[in-house]
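Cont'd.
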Amino acid sequence: MSLKYVILGLLRQRPHYGYEIKQQFDHSLGEIWPVSYGQLYPTLRKLSVSGHISMQTVPGKKAIDKNVYTLTDKGKTDFEQWYEKGVKKTQISIKDEFTLFLFFTQDSDMVRLLPAVRKNHDIVSRQEAVFQSRLEALGEGAPFFQRALLKKMIFHLEAERIWLEEIIMMSKRPAPQGVQRG
Amino acid sequence: MSLKYVILGLLRQRPHYGYEIKQQFDHSLGEIWPVSYGQLYPTLRKLSVSGHISMQTVPGKKAIDKNVYTLTDKGKTDFEQWYEKGVKKTQISIKDEFTLFLFFTQDSDMVRLLPAVRKNHDIVSRQEAVFQSRLEALGEGAPFFQRALLKKMIFHLEAERIWLEEIIMMSKRPAPQGVQRG
DNA sequence: CACAACATGTAAGATGTTACATGATTGA
DNA sequence: TCAATCATGTAACATCTTACATGTTGTG
Protein backbone atom coordinates (compact mmCIF):
# COMPACT_ATOMS: atom_id res chain seq x y z
CA MET A 1 0.00 0.00 0.00
CA SER A 2 1.90 3.02 -1.19
CA LEU A 3 -0.99 5.48 -1.20
CA LYS A 4 -0.23 5.45 2.49
CA TYR A 5 3.26 6.77 1.86
CA VAL A 6 2.05 9.26 -0.68
CA ILE A 7 -0.23 10.76 1.96
CA LEU A 8 2.31 10.62 4.77
CA GLY A 9 4.87 12.18 2.47
CA LEU A 10 2.60 15.06 1.55
CA LEU A 11 1.68 15.68 5.17
CA ARG A 12 5.34 15.96 6.09
CA GLN A 13 5.39 19.40 4.50
CA ARG A 14 2.35 20.68 6.38
CA PRO A 15 -1.17 19.61 7.36
CA HIS A 16 -3.62 19.13 4.51
CA TYR A 17 -7.31 18.38 4.18
CA GLY A 18 -8.61 15.69 1.89
CA TYR A 19 -9.76 17.82 -0.99
CA GLU A 20 -6.47 19.63 -0.94
CA ILE A 21 -4.48 16.41 -1.00
CA LYS A 22 -6.36 15.45 -4.12
CA GLN A 23 -5.57 18.84 -5.68
CA GLN A 24 -1.88 18.56 -4.83
CA PHE A 25 -1.91 15.15 -6.32
CA ASP A 26 -3.59 16.08 -9.54
CA HIS A 27 -1.07 18.85 -10.10
CA SER A 28 2.09 16.94 -9.35
CA LEU A 29 2.14 13.17 -9.01
CA GLY A 30 -1.36 13.00 -10.42
CA GLU A 31 -0.33 12.65 -14.03
CA ILE A 32 1.48 9.54 -13.05
CA TRP A 33 -0.53 8.38 -10.11
CA PRO A 34 -4.22 9.21 -10.24
CA VAL A 35 -6.15 8.98 -6.99
CA SER A 36 -9.92 9.03 -6.61
CA TYR A 37 -11.89 10.30 -3.64
CA GLY A 38 -13.30 6.83 -3.36
CA GLN A 39 -9.84 5.66 -2.44
CA LEU A 40 -8.52 8.75 -0.71
CA TYR A 41 -11.13 9.32 1.98
CA PRO A 42 -11.26 5.74 3.25
CA THR A 43 -7.47 5.71 3.37
CA LEU A 44 -7.38 8.92 5.39
CA ARG A 45 -9.86 7.35 7.76
CA LYS A 46 -7.73 4.24 8.12
CA LEU A 47 -4.56 6.23 8.74
CA SER A 48 -6.41 8.19 11.41
CA VAL A 49 -7.54 5.04 13.14
CA SER A 50 -4.05 3.55 13.01
CA GLY A 51 -2.63 6.74 14.50
CA HIS A 52 -0.39 7.74 11.62
CA ILE A 53 -2.26 11.00 11.20
CA SER A 54 -4.61 13.04 13.38
CA MET A 55 -7.67 14.98 12.31
CA GLN A 56 -8.90 18.45 13.19
CA THR A 57 -12.13 19.90 11.88
CA VAL A 58 -12.02 23.51 10.72
CA PRO A 59 -14.67 25.55 8.93
CA GLY A 60 -14.48 25.34 5.14
CA LYS A 61 -14.95 28.14 2.65
CA LYS A 62 -18.34 26.84 1.79
CA ALA A 63 -20.77 25.12 4.08
CA ILE A 64 -19.04 21.84 4.73
CA ASP A 65 -16.21 21.70 7.26
CA LYS A 66 -12.73 20.70 6.24
CA ASN A 67 -11.01 17.82 7.92
CA VAL A 68 -7.42 18.81 8.27
CA TYR A 69 -4.95 15.97 8.79
CA THR A 70 -1.64 16.32 10.57
CA LEU A 71 1.23 13.87 10.58
CA THR A 72 1.77 12.27 13.99
CA ASP A 73 5.10 11.04 15.34
CA LYS A 74 4.09 7.53 14.46
CA GLY A 75 3.32 8.56 10.89
CA LYS A 76 6.58 10.45 10.62
CA THR A 77 8.60 7.49 11.85
CA ASP A 78 6.81 5.12 9.55
CA PHE A 79 7.43 7.30 6.53
CA GLU A 80 11.07 7.76 7.39
CA GLN A 81 11.60 4.05 7.83
CA TRP A 82 10.00 3.45 4.45
CA TYR A 83 12.24 6.09 2.93
CA GLU A 84 15.41 4.87 4.64
CA LYS A 85 14.87 1.33 3.54
CA GLY A 86 15.40 2.59 0.02
CA VAL A 87 16.07 0.14 -2.79
CA LYS A 88 12.91 0.88 -4.64
CA LYS A 89 12.21 -0.78 -7.94
CA THR A 90 11.01 0.70 -11.16
CA GLN A 91 8.55 -1.43 -12.98
CA ILE A 92 7.17 -0.57 -16.33
CA SER A 93 3.72 -1.88 -16.93
CA ILE A 94 2.39 -1.94 -20.43
CA LYS A 95 -0.94 -3.49 -19.73
CA ASP A 96 -3.60 -1.84 -21.80
CA GLU A 97 -6.50 -2.78 -24.02
CA PHE A 98 -4.76 -1.69 -27.17
CA THR A 99 -1.86 -4.05 -26.58
CA LEU A 100 -4.29 -6.86 -25.98
CA PHE A 101 -6.14 -5.95 -29.16
CA LEU A 102 -2.84 -6.06 -31.01
CA PHE A 103 -2.06 -9.43 -29.50
CA PHE A 104 -5.20 -10.87 -31.07
CA THR A 105 -4.73 -9.28 -34.46
CA GLN A 106 -3.65 -11.67 -37.20
CA ASP A 107 -1.11 -10.65 -39.81
CA SER A 108 -3.82 -10.72 -42.44
CA ASP A 109 -5.88 -8.38 -40.32
CA MET A 110 -3.29 -5.74 -39.68
CA VAL A 111 -5.09 -3.05 -41.61
CA ARG A 112 -7.93 -3.12 -39.10
CA LEU A 113 -5.46 -1.90 -36.54
CA LEU A 114 -4.64 1.34 -38.28
CA PRO A 115 -7.51 3.60 -37.15
CA ALA A 116 -6.82 2.77 -33.51
CA VAL A 117 -3.09 3.21 -34.03
CA ARG A 118 -3.56 6.64 -35.58
CA LYS A 119 -5.92 7.73 -32.85
CA ASN A 120 -3.51 6.64 -30.16
CA HIS A 121 -0.64 8.28 -32.00
CA ASP A 122 -2.52 11.59 -31.93
CA ILE A 123 -3.28 11.33 -28.25
CA VAL A 124 0.24 10.35 -27.30
CA SER A 125 1.79 13.07 -29.45
CA ARG A 126 -0.38 15.72 -27.94
CA GLN A 127 0.36 14.56 -24.42
CA GLU A 128 4.04 14.56 -25.18
CA ALA A 129 3.85 18.16 -26.40
CA VAL A 130 2.00 19.23 -23.27
CA PHE A 131 4.61 17.74 -20.98
CA GLN A 132 7.40 19.11 -23.11
CA SER A 133 6.11 22.65 -22.80
CA ARG A 134 5.59 22.20 -19.09
CA LEU A 135 9.19 21.13 -18.78
CA GLU A 136 10.34 24.15 -20.72
CA ALA A 137 8.20 26.39 -18.53
CA LEU A 138 10.04 25.20 -15.41
CA GLY A 139 12.42 27.75 -13.98
CA GLU A 140 15.99 26.85 -13.24
CA GLY A 141 15.22 26.72 -9.58
CA ALA A 142 12.56 24.08 -10.04
CA PRO A 143 13.00 21.11 -7.75
CA PHE A 144 14.84 18.11 -9.08
CA PHE A 145 11.92 15.73 -8.83
CA GLN A 146 9.60 17.95 -10.84
CA ARG A 147 11.98 18.00 -13.73
CA ALA A 148 12.66 14.29 -13.37
CA LEU A 149 8.99 13.29 -13.30
CA LEU A 150 8.23 15.32 -16.41
CA LYS A 151 11.21 13.80 -18.17
CA LYS A 152 10.07 10.35 -17.26
CA MET A 153 6.65 10.95 -18.71
CA ILE A 154 8.14 12.51 -21.84
CA PHE A 155 10.56 9.65 -22.43
CA HIS A 156 7.84 7.04 -22.13
CA LEU A 157 5.40 9.00 -24.26
CA GLU A 158 8.12 9.32 -26.87
CA ALA A 159 8.77 5.58 -26.72
CA GLU A 160 5.09 4.93 -27.20
CA ARG A 161 4.83 7.40 -30.07
CA ILE A 162 7.79 5.95 -31.93
CA TRP A 163 6.44 2.46 -31.38
CA LEU A 164 3.09 3.46 -32.84
CA GLU A 165 4.88 4.98 -35.81
CA GLU A 166 6.68 1.69 -36.32
CA ILE A 167 3.41 -0.19 -36.20
CA ILE A 168 2.13 2.02 -38.99
CA MET A 169 5.27 1.32 -41.02
CA MET A 170 5.11 -2.40 -40.29
CA SER A 171 1.49 -2.66 -41.29
CA LYS A 172 2.22 -1.15 -44.69
CA ARG A 173 4.52 -3.94 -45.77
CA PRO A 174 4.24 -7.61 -44.81
CA ALA A 175 7.92 -8.43 -44.21
CA PRO A 176 9.48 -5.95 -41.84
CA GLN A 177 13.12 -6.48 -42.72
CA GLY A 178 13.09 -5.77 -46.42
CA VAL A 179 13.95 -8.66 -48.74
CA GLN A 180 11.06 -10.88 -49.76
CA ARG A 181 11.05 -14.22 -51.46
CA GLY A 182 9.49 -14.90 -54.85
CA MET B 1 -12.37 -6.89 -17.06
CA SER B 2 -10.03 -7.76 -19.87
CA LEU B 3 -8.66 -10.99 -18.40
CA LYS B 4 -11.96 -12.26 -19.73
CA TYR B 5 -10.99 -11.32 -23.26
CA VAL B 6 -7.50 -12.63 -22.85
CA ILE B 7 -8.95 -16.03 -22.00
CA LEU B 8 -11.64 -15.98 -24.67
CA GLY B 9 -9.03 -14.91 -27.21
CA LEU B 10 -6.68 -17.75 -26.31
CA LEU B 11 -9.51 -20.29 -26.44
CA ARG B 12 -10.39 -19.17 -29.95
CA GLN B 13 -7.36 -21.03 -31.23
CA ARG B 14 -8.22 -24.29 -29.49
CA PRO B 15 -9.38 -25.59 -26.10
CA HIS B 16 -6.97 -25.13 -23.22
CA TYR B 17 -6.83 -26.18 -19.61
CA GLY B 18 -6.05 -23.74 -16.83
CA TYR B 19 -2.44 -24.59 -16.21
CA GLU B 20 -1.80 -24.44 -19.92
CA ILE B 21 -3.40 -21.01 -20.22
CA LYS B 22 -1.02 -19.80 -17.57
CA GLN B 23 1.92 -21.30 -19.49
CA GLN B 24 0.83 -19.72 -22.76
CA PHE B 25 0.51 -16.48 -20.94
CA ASP B 26 3.87 -16.53 -19.29
CA HIS B 27 5.53 -17.18 -22.62
CA SER B 28 3.76 -14.55 -24.68
CA LEU B 29 1.68 -11.82 -23.10
CA GLY B 30 3.05 -12.73 -19.71
CA GLU B 31 5.98 -10.35 -19.75
CA ILE B 32 3.51 -7.57 -20.16
CA TRP B 33 0.49 -8.96 -18.43
CA PRO B 34 1.23 -11.34 -15.56
CA VAL B 35 -1.63 -13.53 -14.37
CA SER B 36 -1.72 -15.52 -11.15
CA TYR B 37 -3.60 -18.75 -10.53
CA GLY B 38 -5.47 -16.93 -7.81
CA GLN B 39 -7.00 -14.80 -10.50
CA LEU B 40 -7.11 -17.28 -13.35
CA TYR B 41 -9.05 -20.17 -11.81
CA PRO B 42 -11.87 -18.08 -10.36
CA THR B 43 -12.20 -16.30 -13.68
CA LEU B 44 -12.43 -19.59 -15.56
CA ARG B 45 -15.12 -20.66 -13.12
CA LYS B 46 -17.05 -17.44 -13.69
CA LEU B 47 -16.82 -17.71 -17.46
CA SER B 48 -18.11 -21.28 -17.20
CA VAL B 49 -21.07 -20.20 -15.13
CA SER B 50 -21.88 -17.33 -17.50
CA GLY B 51 -21.74 -19.76 -20.42
CA HIS B 52 -18.85 -18.14 -22.30
CA ILE B 53 -16.81 -21.32 -22.05
CA SER B 54 -17.60 -24.95 -21.30
CA MET B 55 -15.56 -27.41 -19.28
CA GLN B 56 -14.60 -31.01 -19.90
CA THR B 57 -12.57 -33.08 -17.48
CA VAL B 58 -9.83 -35.22 -18.97
CA PRO B 59 -7.13 -37.26 -17.21
CA GLY B 60 -3.94 -35.31 -16.59
CA LYS B 61 -0.38 -36.52 -16.96
CA LYS B 62 -0.04 -36.76 -13.25
CA ALA B 63 -2.73 -37.67 -10.79
CA ILE B 64 -4.99 -34.64 -10.95
CA ASP B 65 -7.43 -34.33 -13.83
CA LYS B 66 -7.23 -31.44 -16.23
CA ASN B 67 -10.19 -29.19 -16.78
CA VAL B 68 -10.21 -28.37 -20.46
CA TYR B 69 -12.16 -25.28 -21.43
CA THR B 70 -13.75 -24.76 -24.84
CA LEU B 71 -15.10 -21.54 -26.27
CA THR B 72 -18.89 -21.60 -26.66
CA ASP B 73 -20.85 -19.69 -29.29
CA LYS B 74 -21.70 -17.11 -26.67
CA GLY B 75 -18.04 -16.67 -25.80
CA LYS B 76 -17.09 -16.42 -29.44
CA THR B 77 -19.70 -13.77 -30.14
CA ASP B 78 -18.73 -11.80 -27.07
CA PHE B 79 -15.07 -11.80 -28.03
CA GLU B 80 -15.82 -10.80 -31.58
CA GLN B 81 -18.01 -7.93 -30.47
CA TRP B 82 -15.25 -6.72 -28.18
CA TYR B 83 -12.80 -6.98 -31.03
CA GLU B 84 -15.06 -5.30 -33.59
CA LYS B 85 -15.76 -2.39 -31.31
CA GLY B 86 -12.12 -1.51 -31.68
CA VAL B 87 -10.87 1.95 -30.60
CA LYS B 88 -8.70 0.69 -27.85
CA LYS B 89 -6.54 3.07 -25.89
CA THR B 90 -2.92 2.82 -24.92
CA GLN B 91 -2.21 4.10 -21.48
CA ILE B 92 1.22 4.29 -20.05
CA SER B 93 1.33 3.89 -16.34
CA ILE B 94 4.42 4.87 -14.49
CA LYS B 95 3.29 4.12 -11.02
CA ASP B 96 6.07 2.52 -9.08
CA GLU B 97 7.74 2.84 -5.72
CA PHE B 98 10.91 4.25 -7.14
CA THR B 99 9.11 7.16 -8.73
CA LEU B 100 7.37 7.84 -5.47
CA PHE B 101 10.71 7.68 -3.67
CA LEU B 102 12.07 10.19 -6.16
CA PHE B 103 9.08 12.42 -5.60
CA PHE B 104 9.96 12.72 -1.95
CA THR B 105 13.66 13.26 -2.43
CA GLN B 106 14.84 16.80 -1.84
CA ASP B 107 17.44 18.42 -4.03
CA SER B 108 19.87 18.34 -1.14
CA ASP B 109 19.25 14.65 -0.78
CA MET B 110 19.82 13.63 -4.33
CA VAL B 111 22.92 11.60 -3.63
CA ARG B 112 20.87 9.16 -1.56
CA LEU B 113 19.07 8.27 -4.74
CA LEU B 114 22.11 7.01 -6.57
CA PRO B 115 22.39 3.44 -5.28
CA ALA B 116 18.76 2.76 -6.17
CA VAL B 117 19.18 4.44 -9.54
CA ARG B 118 22.21 2.33 -10.38
CA LYS B 119 20.50 -0.85 -9.29
CA ASN B 120 17.47 -0.09 -11.41
CA HIS B 121 19.67 0.86 -14.31
CA ASP B 122 21.33 -2.54 -14.17
CA ILE B 123 18.03 -4.37 -14.05
CA VAL B 124 16.51 -2.38 -16.86
CA SER B 125 19.59 -2.70 -19.06
CA ARG B 126 19.68 -6.44 -18.62
CA GLN B 127 15.99 -6.80 -19.37
CA GLU B 128 16.41 -4.69 -22.46
CA ALA B 129 19.21 -6.95 -23.70
CA VAL B 130 17.11 -10.05 -23.12
CA PHE B 131 14.21 -8.70 -25.13
CA GLN B 132 16.55 -7.44 -27.81
CA SER B 133 18.06 -10.86 -28.34
CA ARG B 134 14.64 -12.44 -28.35
CA LEU B 135 13.61 -10.04 -31.06
CA GLU B 136 16.68 -10.90 -33.08
CA ALA B 137 15.99 -14.60 -32.62
CA LEU B 138 12.57 -14.23 -34.25
CA GLY B 139 12.39 -15.64 -37.75
CA GLU B 140 11.08 -13.58 -40.64
CA GLY B 141 7.84 -15.50 -40.55
CA ALA B 142 7.15 -14.57 -36.94
CA PRO B 143 3.71 -13.14 -36.40
CA PHE B 144 3.32 -9.40 -36.42
CA PHE B 145 2.17 -9.13 -32.83
CA GLN B 146 5.16 -11.01 -31.45
CA ARG B 147 7.54 -8.61 -33.04
CA ALA B 148 5.39 -5.65 -32.03
CA LEU B 149 5.09 -6.68 -28.38
CA LEU B 150 8.82 -7.19 -28.07
CA LYS B 151 9.46 -3.81 -29.68
CA LYS B 152 7.07 -2.16 -27.30
CA MET B 153 8.86 -3.60 -24.31
CA ILE B 154 12.24 -2.67 -25.73
CA PHE B 155 11.23 0.91 -26.45
CA HIS B 156 9.90 1.45 -22.97
CA LEU B 157 12.85 -0.25 -21.34
CA GLU B 158 15.11 1.98 -23.38
CA ALA B 159 13.15 5.06 -22.32
CA GLU B 160 13.51 3.99 -18.70
CA ARG B 161 17.21 3.29 -19.06
CA ILE B 162 17.95 6.64 -20.67
CA TRP B 163 15.88 8.37 -18.04
CA LEU B 164 17.86 6.68 -15.28
CA GLU B 165 21.07 7.73 -17.00
CA GLU B 166 19.83 11.30 -17.01
CA ILE B 167 19.02 11.09 -13.33
CA ILE B 168 22.59 10.07 -12.69
CA MET B 169 23.82 13.01 -14.75
CA MET B 170 21.41 15.42 -13.08
CA SER B 171 22.37 14.34 -9.62
CA LYS B 172 26.02 15.09 -10.32
CA ARG B 173 25.48 18.80 -10.89
CA PRO B 174 22.94 20.99 -9.16
CA ALA B 175 21.71 23.13 -12.08
CA PRO B 176 20.78 20.99 -15.04
CA GLN B 177 20.96 23.64 -17.76
CA GLY B 178 24.52 24.82 -17.37
CA VAL B 179 25.10 28.44 -16.31
CA GLN B 180 25.21 29.07 -12.59
CA ARG B 181 25.17 32.31 -10.69
CA GLY B 182 28.01 33.50 -8.51
C1' DC C 1 15.34 -38.13 -0.48
C1' DA C 2 14.43 -33.63 -1.93
C1' DC C 3 12.87 -30.74 -5.32
C1' DA C 4 10.77 -29.34 -9.67
C1' DA C 5 6.95 -29.91 -12.68
C1' DC C 6 2.25 -31.05 -13.18
C1' DA C 7 -2.54 -29.61 -11.90
C1' DT C 8 -6.18 -28.03 -9.20
C1' DG C 9 -8.10 -24.75 -6.29
C1' DT C 10 -9.61 -21.38 -1.85
C1' DA C 11 -9.41 -17.40 1.36
C1' DA C 12 -8.17 -13.13 2.77
C1' DG C 13 -7.04 -8.86 1.87
C1' DA C 14 -5.03 -5.06 -0.83
C1' DT C 15 -6.03 -1.84 -4.35
C1' DG C 16 -8.74 0.76 -7.39
C1' DT C 17 -12.96 2.49 -10.04
C1' DT C 18 -17.59 4.18 -10.56
C1' DA C 19 -21.62 5.81 -9.32
C1' DC C 20 -24.21 7.81 -5.97
C1' DA C 21 -25.56 11.21 -2.11
C1' DT C 22 -25.34 15.89 0.04
C1' DG C 23 -25.33 20.77 -0.04
C1' DA C 24 -23.55 25.81 -0.11
C1' DT C 25 -21.51 29.39 -2.97
C1' DT C 26 -19.70 31.77 -6.90
C1' DG C 27 -19.62 33.42 -11.49
C1' DA C 28 -21.30 33.55 -16.29
C1' DT D 1 -30.64 29.97 -13.54
C1' DC D 2 -27.21 26.77 -14.50
C1' DA D 3 -22.78 25.00 -14.15
C1' DA D 4 -18.53 24.86 -11.68
C1' DT D 5 -16.04 24.80 -7.47
C1' DC D 6 -15.69 23.59 -2.80
C1' DA D 7 -15.91 19.63 0.45
C1' DT D 8 -17.35 15.53 2.46
C1' DG D 9 -18.26 10.82 2.15
C1' DT D 10 -20.46 5.64 1.11
C1' DA D 11 -21.43 1.32 -1.44
C1' DA D 12 -20.78 -1.82 -4.78
C1' DC D 13 -18.02 -3.82 -7.56
C1' DA D 14 -13.76 -5.05 -10.17
C1' DT D 15 -9.12 -6.35 -10.12
C1' DC D 16 -5.09 -8.43 -8.37
C1' DT D 17 -1.72 -10.47 -4.94
C1' DT D 18 -0.25 -13.66 -1.52
C1' DA D 19 -0.36 -17.38 1.04
C1' DC D 20 -2.19 -21.65 1.82
C1' DA D 21 -3.92 -26.58 0.76
C1' DT D 22 -3.49 -31.05 -1.86
C1' DG D 23 -1.27 -34.74 -4.15
C1' DT D 24 1.47 -37.40 -7.96
C1' DT D 25 5.39 -38.20 -10.86
C1' DG D 26 9.92 -37.72 -12.65
C1' DT D 27 14.82 -36.37 -11.94
C1' DG D 28 19.24 -35.59 -9.78
